Amino acid sequence: MPKQLTVTAYSFAELDERAKDKARDKFREHALDYDWWEDVYITADHVAALMGIDIDRGRSATTPNIEFSGFASQGDGASFTGTWSHKTDGPQAVREHAPLDEKLHAIADELDALGRKLGGSVQATLTRIDSHYSHDCTVRVDLEDTEDEDREIDEATRKEVQETLRSFMRWIYRQLEAEYEYRMSDEAIDEDIEANDYLFTAEGSRTTVLND
After folding, report:
1. E strands within the chain?
2. Residue 42 burial (CB count, 10 A)
3. Bond before 71 cis per omega within 30 degrees
4. Alpha carbon distance 116, 9 (integer Å)
5. 170: number of CA atoms within 13 Å, CB side?
6. Cα(178)–Cα(170) distance, rounded to whole angstroms?
7. What is the pLDDT averaged over residues 29-44?
């Protein structure tokens, strides 16, 4: 025989701290069930272009093919494939985009210095050498002079370019890690719960049953 049940429901703000923690933990289980990294990818792709880096495309012509894993294992990291060539206004453009990011400024400055040393006809190609992980050391960088195929570029310079481009991959990973930590923070979880006006039992379990 059907029974009518009456449930006393509370807004998130009305819960005590123990119940709020329970509610947060439950929401965290599904807090990242979407492509939460897309904004970081878009920013990284834009910054890359400012420095002369053309990241290969992924699912579409507008999606950069960045790979990452994170954020608690030894092999975690981020990387991409593509090309790089000197862009003379890179340092200025990066500073205009991110005036307070000194680590990004240093990467832009180093790429600029290497580009001036090598000349505008030199192109770096980034290829993946390990498909089991996603960190920066899974990508190798090779240099060629597009106007002089007989030119030999010394190994030390190749490694300098490779390390600088890998530094940018590590920068991307730090942005992803920061975004992940924010999305999983109490602040972000609370904002999501309150924006959707969810209701809870006194113990912190979500309820959708509410009778007058």
Report:
1. 10-11, 53-55, 66-69, 77-80, 82-85, 122-128, 139-145, 199-200, 206-207
2. 13
3. yes
4. 66
5. 11
6. 12
7. 94
Indicate the burial class of 97 (C-beta count within 10 angstroms; 0-12, 13-18, 19 or more).
middle
Residue 184, pLDDT score: 95
Full strand arrangement of the beta sheet holding 206-207 = 10-11, 199-200, 206-207
Distant-in-sequence contacts of 158-165, Cβ < 8 A, 24+ apart: 160/110, 160/114, 161/84, 161/111, 161/114, 161/118, 161/124, 162/124, 164/107, 164/110, 164/111, 164/114, 165/53, 165/84, 165/111, 165/124, 165/126, 165/139, 165/141
Domain ranges (residues) in the chain: 1-31+184-212, 35-183
Q: Dump pLDDT digits (tens) for 112-126.
A: 999 999 999 999 999
Place of tokens 């007989």: 150
**CB-side neighbour CA atoms (13 Å) of 14:** 12
Rounded average pLDDT over 13-35 = 94
Q: Which two tokens stand for residue 148?
A: 């002089």
